[in-house]
Amino acid sequence: MNDLTLTELATLLSVFNRAGLSDLDKTEQEMFERIQHAHAERLELESMDFDDCLGGACKL
Which of 11, 22, 34, 54 has the fewest Cβ atoms nearer than 10 Å? Predict the structure, then answer.
């Protein structure tokens, strides 16, 4: 699977925001929400300090 990078996801969110969110149809709104969710997950994953996971303290 070809996952998008954090930068690519942020770019997509920026494009959606510049295009205007009020004019989105249902499918576009669903895609925007999926991109927001993927961005939040990727941001969290990339900001994790994996040293914090020693002893099973975090969920991967």
Answer: 22
Task: Give the whole-angstrom CA distance, residue 56 versus residue 10.
Answer: 30
Confidence (pTM): 0.75
Cα–Cα distance for residue pair 48/57, rounded to 1 Å: 12
Contacts 24+ apart (CB under 8 A), 49-54: none
Residue 19 token pair: 């295009």
Gap between the Cα atoms of 20 and 18, Å rounded: 5
pLDDT tens digits, one per residue of 13-55: 999 999 898 888 999 999 999 999 999 999 988 887 766 666 6
User: Residue 59 and residue 26: Cα distance in Å, rounded?
Assistant: 33
